[in-house]
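pinging the channel bc i need a second pair of eyes. not urgent but kinda urgent?? the chain im working w is below, pasted from the shared doc
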Amino acid sequence: VLRVGEGEDVQGSIRLGLQFFVKGSLDTDSTKILPCYFPATENNRVTLYQDADTPQLPVFEGLTCHDGSDYVPSRLWRDVYDTIVSAQKFVYITGWSVYTAISLLRGEEDPDGTVSNIGELLKSKSEEGVRVLLLIWNDKSSGGVFGREGQMGTHDEETEEFFVGSAVQVANVM
């Protein structure tokens, strides 16, 4: 259990549980774990990230993985960038907020933030013939009394406007 605050000042808590089953270890048909919307599939890869971008810090020197290889910290934004760049058929992004001005890489990898700008990167992929679809959350307060930014600051209006005239398809839903 993760708690925010201490003693009587606890502001909230969350309990998270994960349970892994080895295929074939269940008493019933191991291809079906109920309740699931989609059927179980094989040969999937999951990467767990501790942070969005963890540099190779001195504390990691000498650490090895279970297979004996050197430990290399995970880099979410680098992985997202590499995945989009290498996409050949489609890029589907679902997010509470997709801010087109953000650059995925920083520092020496993209000093001025132009190479990895998410908006331009997605436009570029769509121009290559890659199908790019965005499903973003529509903040109903944006464009109203709270101004263009809305109360939640999701950039939904900006994102939708940014891709007008491009092959990128944006679904602004609530």
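so The helical segments are 76-86, 118-127, 156-162. and The mean pLDDT is 83. — does that match what u expected or am i reading it wrong
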